[in-house]
Design brief:
Four Helix Bundle (Hemerythrin (Met), subunit A), mainly alpha, 5 helices, single chain, elongated, two-stranded antiparallel ribbon, membrane
């Protein structure tokens, strides 16, 4: 159980690093005329992701979940692969990556790295991690609830906001050509 607690803590620290990168990148974007979209859903998204980490620990400790090697080891590999994909996205977008939806008008769409294959690769990582991380230690309630709520948030709010922002950015790019 201590290994799992350390994994969740490390994931929380990684999220704080992401927020720091995001804050720096937001400054970069705003200095170049960046426009933010969908600001209202961001606090809920942060709360949801923080809640998932806490729920992982609470479910494991309060409901005395056990580590099942046949499930836990593959889920750990999947969770680590999600981190690799997330940081590939961050590296590919560079200063344009953000946890918020900020578009710098006039910049072309990124179509390299994981964006060559997927339109929203970071969300593939988020969804897969929401299943894998809790299941490392059999926290199936957390995996189920987070996945359902996260999918509703992504499909109903976040992805449409990003699509609208990308359309805005592309329209600005065409206008500047």
């Amino acid at each position: 159980m201590l290994f799992y607690a350390a994994l969740i803590l490390a994931t929380g620290v990684e999220r704080l690093v992401e927020l720091r990168v995001s804050t720096r990148n937001a400054g970069w974007a705003f200095a170049r005329g960046g426009v933010e979209f969908g600001r209202n859903h961001f606090p809920f998204m942060v709360s949801l992701h923080t809640g998932m980490l806490l729920a992982c620990l609470l479910e494991v400790f309060l409901l005395q979940r056990v580590f099942l090697p046949w499930l836990g080891w593959p889920m750990l590999v999947a969770a680590l692969a999600c981190q690799a994909l997330r940081w590939w996205c961050i590296g590919t977008l560079g200063p344009r990556w953000n946890t918020r939806v900020i578009i710098v008008p006039g910049l072309p769409l990124v179509n390299r790295g994981p964006y060559r294959v997927l339109k929203h690769p970071n969300y593939v990582a988020v969804i897969a991690e929401g299943v894998a991380l809790p299941l490392v230690y059999s926290a199936w309630i957390t995996a189920l609830v987070f996945t359902v709520v996260n999918l509703v948030l992504l499909l109903r709010f976040r992805i449409p906001v990003e699509e609208k922002a990308l359309e805005f950015g592309l329209a600005q790019t065409v206008r500047n050509v």
